[in-house]
Amino acid sequence: MEPLASKIRPKTLKGFVGQEHLVGEGKPLNIAIKQKHLFSFILWGPPGTGKTTLARIYANSLKARFYDLSAVSAGKADIRKIIAEEIKNQSKILFLDEIHRFNKSQQDFLLPFVERGDITLIGATTENPSFEVIPALLSRCRVFVLNELSAKEMLAIIQQTGFKLDKESKDWLIAMANGDARQVITMLENTSRLYNKINIENLKNTLQSKFLRYDKQGDEHYNTISAFIKSMRASQPDAALYYLARMIDAGEDPKFIARRMVIFASEDIGLAHPTALVVANDVFRAVETIGLPECGINLAHGVAYLSKCKKNRTSYDAYMAAMEDVKEYGNLPIPLSLRNAPTKLMKELDYGKGYDKYTEKDLLPDKLKGKKYLK
What we know:
This protein is of the alpha/beta class. The protein has 4 domains: 4-145, Rossmann fold (3-Layer(aba) Sandwich); 151-208, Helicase, Ruva Protein, domain 3; 219-308, Zinc Finger, Delta Prime, domain 3 (Up-down Bundle), CATH 1.20.272; 330-368, no CATH class. Helix content is 52%, strand content 7%. It has helices at residues 4-7, 20-23, 28-35, 51-61, 76-84, 104-116, 129-132, 135-138, 151-161, 167-177, 181-194, 200-208, 219-233, 237-249, 254-269, 276-290, 295-308, 314-329, 344-348; strands spanning 41-44, 65-70, 92-97, 120-125, 142-145. Residues 210-214 have low confidence and may be disordered.
């Protein structure tokens, strides 16, 4: 039986919900689709935000042959088969879901076909492509960032399913899905199969049932990593180790886990134990070097250590506060004494004048004098 998400998938931008910064009038993907501009790109964003749908709409607009592969199960043989297939008057578009799962060797193999134009590549990933895609391949692709869907957009997705829900059920479903349209559609589809009526009680029962299993791209992926981080934050190594084991057992990418630990070391431990970042980085390097199953031991070592460290978020909070001022005030004029003066003209304009290496004077722009970020 065809899944509901596939049945209601829009074939043109007219029915597409969200990502206005990419598909709105005059925006890059809207222009590319209207002008039938053929190029390779990567869609980076959270699950359920329309990556697959956008790729299909784009391919349809160009009347291209669309090949849909998942990097989890696909390999070089699948690429060879696509390249070898003879078609006339049609471009070949390869949609590679979870492109971050392709290892370096596989990406190196794919590269010349993209360079020569034998295939046009559309990659989809929930991970930062800067870390997971080799530079040569990344340089030949534009990267488009997709945003989590808003509550209004999620409501529009619910309406597209055709199910009638009361306001309480809609509000609960939107809050539970956390911007993931696929999760909303799947929850509604599963609830309709399990129960005669869709209401908040039956939705909650469906969520608790084993009907929904761990999905490395879906809700359980994010729910489990969230529980993992929050357990370390609460200094509860037993809970953190349990969620670590659960992710490893489900086949989660160990580098994904290790990367979150590196972020955690600065965000949550920070100045309380600066060497935590050193340990987290070493764990990440061990994961890269050793791989599964043995690197699970390295992860466990790091998790236990980070969980037991004292926590201090002042550097993280200070950075966020500084970022708010940057966004609010833009590029405020930098004090003249702090400016570089490589030319005579700049020196005449007082660039660098009065600079003191060890001054106690406030070095912030004039509008922010006296502001304290690190408290």
